[in-house]
Specification:
This is UDP-galactopyranose mutase. By secondary structure, this protein is of the alpha/beta class. 34% of the residues lie in helices and 21% in strands. The strands form 4 sheets. A 7-stranded mixed sheet has the order 8-7-13-14-15-12-16. Bound molecules: flavin-adenine dinucleotide (FAD) and uridine-5'-diphosphate.
């Protein structure tokens, strides 16, 4: 009899598994329908020996010391600050939009103070910032919105930014200084030996058994367990009883090139050209030295593996119905990006999983007192 069945070996499932096994001595079975651990963060050495991220570029960044310290038990780190260029009007310019972006794009020589004035002069008055269009036009006006955000978002999400919650484009700041880092978090680093190696350590406790290539439906009635942690899509768990939650998918096209370096930076975004949104060169992320280089193109699509919950009010309303059901069932707990339908980064999923573990621990302690 296992104490816990954990569905999904991504960040959510693996962190809860590790805590339950090492801190509460629970016997855990973790199953994943894919042939590998690490969920969407899975990386591997390709046929040429280059470390690549199978499901697109994963860059670790967080402001949470707790999350960083926790993961540091399972990996060493390689300091890494991510930088992105966008292809706009025939030029490659820094993204997020900053002072240099504006000067390069318009052939100007503004100071930080002047560029803030420029943003204010082009910004549109928006009575209430609600959508992903509102966020951008109210900060940098319509022209920059159209050059950098409108078409990228249409490609990525298959809908206009005016239909998406403001939280989506709010992920990307606008700066009047020359800081060209994509993220400004306190901790920015990559697992030195990759994500999969970190997950191998996370899941190495003898109380944890791993079953891959296994949909949990195949074993749920066969292998006995007391409680379940579910990290797959929440609507699927409840047999879509309130309808399907929309998820956005991507097709990743990987390529290895006979050259040492291909891009001028780790990622180039293409808001207005091509069917793909961005191209990533992995060696920038991993620091690997190799005579060849591997890149990946991301082609957004509606069908396929669910990668992104789609943040908009009507989807949140459907999710809330599922959440009510989820809160009612005893001994099944939901965590992670798909099971809680949240557009979370890795560190947010780790924080959520650690919080769930604390809840389970407290519940056990309270039970012991009765
Ligand atoms: P997942 O990693 O999706 O794990 C869930 C697992 O459950 C999967 O392995 C799945 O196979 C399994 N599963 C589902 N259903 C079943 C079932 N029925 N039976 C058995 N197993 C099942 N975050 C960052 O912080 N930085 C980044 O740069 C970044 N880049 C990203 C780029 C892309 C293209 C994508 C898609 C995401 C990115 N993320 C990034 C987000 C990051 O991938 C997630 O936050 C994190 O991986 C979510 O972990 P999870 O455990 O919730 O879900
Ligand atoms: N975005 C955009 N243009 C860009 C970069 C981002 O319009 O050059 C918008 C787009 O809607 C995207 C969102 O901002 O989905 C969030 O971008 P982020 O880079 O955080 O996306 P992720 O890495 O999660 O795919």
């Amino acid at each position: 009899m296992f104490d816990y069945l954990i569905v999904g070996a991504g960040f959510a499932g693996s962190v809860v598994a590790e805590r339950l096994a090492s801190q509460l001595n629970k016997k855990v079975l973790i199953v994943d329908k894919r042939p590998h651990i690490a969920g969407n963060a899975f990386d591997h050495y390709n046929e040429e020996g280059i470390l690549v991220h199978k499901y697109g570029p994963h860059i670790f960044h967080t402001n949470s010391r707790d999350v960083f310290d926790y993961l540091s038990n399972f990996t060493e780190w390689r300091p890494y600050e991510h930088r992105v260029l966008a292809s706009v009007d025939g030029q490659l310019v820094p993204m997020p939009i900053n002072l240099d972006t504006i000067n390069k794009l318009y052939g100007l020589n503004l100071t930080a103070f002047e560029v803030e004035g420029f943003f204010q002069s082009v910004a549109e008055q928006v009575p209430e910032v609600r959508t992903s269009e509102d966020v951008v036009v109210s900060r940098v006006g319509r022209e920059l919105y159209e050059k950098f955000f409108r078409n990228y978002t249409r490609k990525q999400w298959g809908m206009d930014p005016s239909e998406l919650d403001k939280s989506v484009t709010s992920r990307v700041p606008v700066r009047s200084n020359r800081d060209d880092r994509y993220f400004t978090d306190t901790f920015q680093a990559m697992p030195r030996h990759g994500y999969t190696a970190m997950f191998e350590k996370l899941l190495s406790h003898p109380n944890i058994k791993i079953m891959l290539n296994t949909d949990y439906h195949e074993i749920v009635d066969v292998i006995p367990f007391r409680k379940m942690i579910f990290t797959g899509p929440v609507d699927e768990y409840f047999d879509f009883c309130y309808g399907e939650l929309p998820y956005r998918s991507l097709e990743f096209r990987h390529q290895t090139l006979e050259q040492e370096v291909h891009l001028p930076t780790a990622v180039v975004n293409f808001p207005n050209e091509h069917a793909y949104t961005r191209v990533t060169e992995f060696k920038y992320l991993t620091g690997q030295q190799h005579p060849k280089t591997s890149i990946v193109y991301e082609y957004p699509q509606a069908e396929g593996e669910p990668y992104y919950p789609v943040p908009k009010a009507e989807n949140a309303a459907i999710y809330n119905q599922y959440k009510k059901l989820a809160d009612q069932i005893k001994d099944v707990y939901f965590a992670g990006r798909l099971a809680t339908y949240k557009y979370y980064n890795m560190d947010q999923v780790v924080a959520q999983a650690l919080t769930l573990f604390k809840r389970l621990k407290t519940a056990q302690e309270e039970k012991a007192l009765v």
